[in-house]
Specification:
Blueprint: H1 16-26, E1 32-33, H2 34-41, H3 45-57, E2 61-66, E3 76-80, E4 85-92, E5 97-103, E6 108-114, H4 123-138, E7 146-154, E8 158-159, E9 164-165, H5 179-187, E10 192-196, H6 197-203, E11 211-216, E12 220-226, E13 229-230, H7 261-270, H8 274-292, E14 296-300, H9 302-306, H10 310-322, E15 333-335, H11 342-352
Parallel strand pairs: 4-7, 7-10, 11-14, 14-15
Antiparallel strand pairs: 1-3, 2-3, 4-5, 5-6, 8-9, 11-12, 12-13
Helix pairs in contact: 2-3, 4-5, 6-11, 7-8, 8-10
The structure holds zinc ion.
């Protein structure tokens, strides 16, 4: 099978205006006319004409059908070609690795999983396993397709800028491990990016406004999309939501502290009491909403998706009860629309995003 190219056809199409046009086309799967693109970007019809000609020549978009006539001649609709490029998204969990081939429109084209994760093998061995899965999945892309890169969502704490893990709880062998560099060596020439699993999951549901994404699996974390952009903080480690202390002298937590929200939620889940876990999560969500005044709270992670009705309902109730003016402070709580694959899907977005002007 042919190995996909490393984004070679697409690298010439990364100027700001082209990214703007591509992002509008991505957001309009039903198609968009040149007139609509000019209105949406503020560019002149001539500029749009030139950009579209280049995108057609690169087979990144196609002319597809005709829109409704507005009295004059019918408008030709342009659509992004999903199969014009791909990225690979990886979710690296404690005991599982999931690898997806994702097309330009965020569609999942192929999936591979292994019952091995961070806690099951030494770092070098795990890196080789991930690289083998990535190659296997990349090889399912159509012959000659562009592969824009590989994104990895991994539990934190980690340094996104340098691609290094920092003291992940219970995973001593991974402390200071340069995961991004180790994977990039294996997967050259494909670029590799690494981020916290919470952040990649949030990227999979990025939209306008302020969003808090809460992720509950074998740990508890959050990601913050402020004004639609990921907020990473000074060391790129923002969002350690699970380690807010909510019970002084409470039970010990994997982080070394006591009474963390994560420790209390995991203890509730261990006894099978998901309602209690959800009520605790609502306390944390209320703290976050009071601090940041977000528009919405999205939920994800394996524990939440195993109880997809209980968690949103309990957290919405608990949150509303803790906000001083619930008429005014209406903050909807729902499952992430990206679904259970959000971490790996959003990891692919780390590689796809720049083509559409995202700089997360
Ligand atoms: Zn803790």
């Amino acid at each position: 099978m042919d190995t996909p190219h490393a984004g070679s056809n697409l690298t010439g199409l990364r100027d700001h205006n082209t990214a703007l046009v591509l992002s509008l086309l991505r957001a309009a799967p039903q198609g968009s006319s040149r007139v609509e693109l000019a209105a949406g970007t503020g560019l002149t019809p001539q500029a749009i004409g030139k950009i579209v000609a280049r995108l057609l020549a690169a087979a990144l978009v196609e002319e597809d059908g005709r829109g409704a006539s507005t009295g004059g001649k019918p408008r030709t609709l342009l659509r992004l070609r999903p199969a014009a490029g791909f990225a690979v998204g990886v979710e690296l969990d404690r005991h599982r690795t999931t690898v997806l081939l994702v097309d330009l429109c965020g569609g999942i084209r192929h999936r591979a999983t292994a019952p091995t994760g961070l806690a099951d093998a030494p770092p070098r061995q795990t890196v080789e396993l991930i690289a083998a899965l990535v190659r296997e999945v990349a090889a399912t892309a159509p012959a000659g397709a562009d592969l824009l890169g590989v994104g990895v969502g991994c539990r934190g704490p980690l340094d996104h800028a340098h691609g290094v893990l920092h003291r992940p709880a219970g995973l001593a062998s991974w402390d200071r491990f340069p995961l991004r560099e180790a994977l990039a060596e294996q997967l050259a020439p494909w670029p590799v990016r690494l981020d916290k699993d919470t952040n990649t999951a949030a990227l999979a549901c990025a939209g306008p406004g302020h969003t808090a994404y809460l992720h509950f699996g074998d740990g508890l974390g959050a990601a913050l999309l402020l004004n639609g952009a990921l907020h990473r903080g000074a060391r790129t480690n923002a969002g350690e939501f699970g380690h807010q202390v909510v019970q002084l002298d409470g039970p010990p937590c994997s982080c070394g502290s006591r009474g963390c929200l994560e420790a209390l939620c995991l203890a509730a889940v261990a006894t099978g009491d998901h309602r209690a876990a959800a009520r605790l999560l609502a306390v944390g969500a209320a703290n976050l909403v009071q601090l940041l005044d977000v528009d919405r709270v999205l939920l994800g992670g394996p524990v939440v998706f195993a109880h997809p009705e209980l968690y949103p309902a309990e957290i919405a109730d608990g949150l509303a009860a803790r906000l001083p003016d619930r008429e005014w402070q209406q903050v909807p709580v729902s499952l992430t629309p990206a679904g259970p694959a959000a971490v790996a899907l959003g990891a692919a977005e780390l590689a796809l995003g720049p083509l559409f002007g995202r700089r997360d």
